[in-house]
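User: Quick one: structure for sequence A, then sequence B.

Assistant: Sequence A:
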Amino acid sequence: MRLELTDQTALRRLPWADLKAYLDAQGWHLTERIGDKALVYVPGGAAAEPVEILVPTRDDLGDYASRMAEAVQTLAEREQRSALAVYSDITTSGFDVVRLRAPGEDADGAIAIEDGVTLYREAENLMLSAACAAVDTRRNYHLRKVTEATDYLKSVRLGPSERGSYVLTIFSPVQPRLGGQQRLELGDEPFSRMVTLRLADALAAARRAADSAVADNAFDPFDAAVAEGVSANLCEAVARLAEAARGIEIGLTWARTRPAGRRNQRFQFRREVAEVLREAASVFRRSEPHTDERLTGFVIALDRPVEQFDGSATLRILLGDKPRRVRVHFEQAVYPQVIRAFQEKLVLSLVGDLYPVGQRWELRSPREIRVEEDQDTDAVGGRSG
């Protein structure tokens, strides 16, 4: 069936660079340039009959829309698809496309409104967590506080739901790669591409970690996956998507204007995996470091006698309204203050970064250290060891 695209406004808005990128990706060959007005493309391989596509290279030409319509229709006939389907593919040439497919939709492709709201909300959290991981890999993020990630999200667009099932599409714009550019390292890619590459790596790592965690009854696989972009935020977003959609399929298609050097990718998360991912998110958050914390506590032990003190000590502090033992290593310049606080059972006040290490805590980079003469023992859990 011949289905023509006749919307002149839509055709005039279609960037010629996206048409060129589509032809390059589909194996067509540039054979001629017509001044600064057009490029002539022919199909690769042995064509049954001579055919060419004229790509206008100026959108101010009077016949721009008609030339684009001819190009789309020629491609539709050769690919045995509708012109509208070809047009849709060309319009995404400059985008990395993330597709969230809900296999649990009704027979007519609809889903409950509450589940739909969850899909849209968690799709945003999924992209934001990947953007945060592209800036810095961490176990947990305060998503809205990573400026580069929130700025990136302003450029992301939601596409129309695709027919045949409930599919939410996300368009992430990518700068085109110029013809002479070599394949770049991850750190040299534009930020938007770094985000989608990180998303792909993190989803693959989360899928593997979930399987390994169940098999080994251990959290270690998730901990090891942090370097690949797995975080509490990503785990929680995928878990909620899988619950709302009764399983979720996440696909990534790379922009034709900037080849990614890897195949399009697809990841499936069954609804049963959501529970594992939620637990991983919970563990990540419980073990999140506390940076720039102002703490007060008692020095309850020195690793060595006073005359041989090397800076390593144990403090008793309140953390989350619970008394905790914390390991600290002090610089030599503050040894006298630490020893005095220990010997006289005085409160030590300091700022540092608290890190969970197994079942214990370590305080790193202690600073702004002072001995408190007036003490409130209840505020630091008492003096007992």
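Sequence B:
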Amino acid sequence: MKVLLTGASGQLGQAIIKSKPSFVELIATTRRELDLADDEACRRAVRQHQPDWVINSGAYTAVDKAEDEKELAMSINTIAPKMFAEELSQTGGKLLQLSTDFVFDGEQNFPYKTGQKKKPLGVYGATKAAGEDAIYDVLGNSNQALIIRTSWLFGAVGKNFMKTMIRLHRSQEEIRVVSDQIGCPTSTLTLAKACWRAIEKQKDIEPNVLSPQLHHWSDEGSASWYEFAKVIGELGCRIGLIERPAKVIPISSEEYTTRAKRPKYSILDCTTTRQFLNLEGIHWKESILNVMKQVST
């Protein structure tokens, strides 16, 4: 099986590479080899490599910056998936697209199911939601597309909240962290495993039977950013990654202004996905510990 991976240098891309099954021939591309802002380059990559799958883990994820770079965010998060879908519709290959909890507005207080109406608050969420729609427009009546939404992703490499908090716990006496936004931290390790399992499951789908195309995947449990930051300090201290945790002070979203508005509640209901993949979730605290063991001191 030949798989073309985008975003290979990112935190999820690195986890996907490390967890690659032995039977997969992986063509891992960074921005240098495949610029997702170049729609013709996206088309050309599919035509050149003729992959059985494209895993599109690359994305424009600078949530605040996206408010000022709408065209670039749209090119990467919406147009690129559309280009992949259109080319794959011709070659017969399949697309695994990574999406986000930011397609929802966070106004409800119970987990979001896959079929619920999307209502993004900012440019980032809107461009990811539009990317989903573009894929459905092209591949919606086939088994050539899978979309996996996830939330609050963290890993041992790249830029993410966990790594930032480790640095701040090491260097600061106090850290002020938002306590009124609720979600679920998700490890790149568990998400990468879910991606490969989703691809593997597609081999079992009988011809002319349409399988579920939209999935939610996060780790188990829920947390505020404040709780997330506290646990990072505690676990980091336990394994010697942090000498002494900083004091974490809870603040409101109003006290920490950002260019883009965030969902107040973005827990994803992963029940049907776990059943479909036959893959149990683990609690986000356990995931943090597993990832921290891979972080260099």
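The two ends are 37 Å apart (CA to CA). The longest strand covers residues 94-100.

User: Thanks, that's what I needed.
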